[in-house]
């Protein structure tokens, strides 16, 4: 299994996901500005992994602040937080991790050096907790997957694997647990246009662990369902509203509609930190729009004629009524029961 965000030799090591699957490269991050750029350019991607990276980015920024005045330190750390918040608007784990780091800074007694040390420990805790969370998600997901056939096929969209988290993965965490228990026959991975995270990253992870994987284009999903090739769909999430509406990689909504039409269970796998209880429904989730070059150019090849317009939203929102269950580290819940966790002891 791979670990995309690691603290090593007094810096953060990131697997450069823009170079996979052809080249495995590790980028060393020493400054908060470099971490912000890595998040923005998708060297690191996936909501949980972005949260872990942002936490370390906050510590790197804190480490750069030279002052003994606590109030001045807080003010300058808030500027680091603003820089990191500005990188990607949809993934709520980014904002959750930054808020937790700022809370640590404000609530730590003692000197500025004491605060810096506590920030480092908090970033490491966020990293370790996410890995444990993903393993729990995988096992809870295993418990709600269809019991027939004995060995099933699972369709995924985008990458919600070890590369998108601290390790193990959310949607691919469920896949890994099913494979471990001998209940998985094969993964079908949507290629996930325009950045091809399914073809490049999900397929790469499966190959690393000898999990059988078939890559299909996004517009083949409904056909494969009709042919009886898909038994369940498991996807990740970048932000979930309180009612269960879920933002995930563009194209997820289409897969959910197709799954509903073919009576195939559609699961969302995500940590509880991905749920934004301040949003009542998915219409309030901000949707990132990315550079249109992702649509019209692949490598050095231009795909479209000059003079056309482009629309490139990175995410769409799947309504809660299309979701069979949301799988968290605390169990699997129907979307209408998700809000009950807000007042429970688990958060």
Number of E-state strands: 16
Structural class: alpha/beta
The CATH class assignment of the largest domain is: Alpha Beta
Number of domains: 2
Radius of gyration: 20 Å
Low-confidence stretches: none
Oligomerization state: single chain
| Main sheet overview | 7 strands, mixed
Mean pLDDT: 95
Name some characteristics of this structure.
Rossmann fold; 7-stranded mixed β-sheet; 4-stranded mixed β-sheet; globular; 2 domains; 347 residues; alpha/beta; 18% strand; Four Helix Bundle (Hemerythrin (Met), subunit A)
What do these coordinates show?
The protein has 347 residues and is α/β, with parallel strands linked by helices. It has two domains: 5-133, Up-down Bundle (Four Helix Bundle (Hemerythrin (Met), subunit A)), CATH 1.20.120; 146-343, Rossmann fold, CATH 3.40.50.10470. The protein contains ten helices and 16 strands. The protein has helices at residues 32-40, 47-64, 70-85, 92-107, 112-144, 171-180, 197-208, 221-226, 252-261, 293-296; strands spanning 5-8, 11-15, 26-29, 152-156, 184-190, 213-216, 232-235, 239-241, 246-249, 266-269, 275-276, 297-298, 301-302, 315-318, 325-328, 331-333. It has a seven-stranded mixed sheet with strand order 6-5-4-7-10-15-16, sandwiched between helices. Strand 5, helix 7 and strand 6 (213-216) form a beta-alpha-beta unit. The longest helix is centred in the middle third of the chain and has 33 residues, at 112-144.
